[in-house]
């Protein structure tokens, strides 16, 4: 209850912050995008990580205003990078609840439209990360929403790919651009034959379906070497950089050019 009370005030007190983690093209090391990851700097509790409050934000509906803030802040930042001659993609995580309308609150599509208009960010520089579970619920409305978002030129990626309980049929039904291989498959890729087989198979499938593929949780060179030998073009993880504040992310970008 106390956490909820604090979370309700977090937005107006300006306690929410975005960190950014680079997404890197494996063959040349260039940064092609940044994933925005939220942090909460509370005066009493210190830095609170999203795993500790996103669930609560979903249950209380606070994820709607928080999610809109994340989208706006991330797009503003990406627009600033674009204007500075560094036109990289910005990836924003969406929760299940953000797909469904709350009473008196606008739909996701309207928020995306507003933010793009307000920030003047090119739509193709925005990528929305959704989970397999989003694709499984309310099939028809989800498909409608995704098609409308896609028509704006915005990209759609599937986060934590391979860990959900969904069927692969959604890969042809939904307008997807990118799969992000969950880090649990990447972790032991150098030693575990099953993980190697799974990642190889996902890479081949993504290639044939013309989906971009990002490996998450890349922590060392040997993992990268294996991924480079697959049809996996992009990587993200501590090996390149942990999620960092905007200033540091800008510095990483300037170095990458
Ligand atoms: O860095 P990490 O601890 O940031 O993220 C933990 C989890 O929180 C991940 O599953 C991530 O997708 C989620 N997350 C991070 N930022 C956001 C956000 O802005 N919105 C939503 N819905 N989830 C987020
Ligand atoms: O669910 P999602 O993929 O959006 O969240 C990514 C989560 O993984 C975040 O908590 C982020 O901080 C974390 N993360 C990013 N890079 C690495 C990595 O190289 N190793 C591990 N273990 N976690 C990572
Ligand atoms: Mn993500
Ligand atoms: Na993920």
From TrEMBL:
> What residue stretches are annotated with the EAL domain?
1-257
Question: From which residue to which does any coiled coil extend?
Answer: none
The protein's name in its UniProt record = EAL domain-containing protein
Organism of provenance: Methylomonas defluvii
- Measured against the full-length protein, the chain present covers 495 to 751 of 755
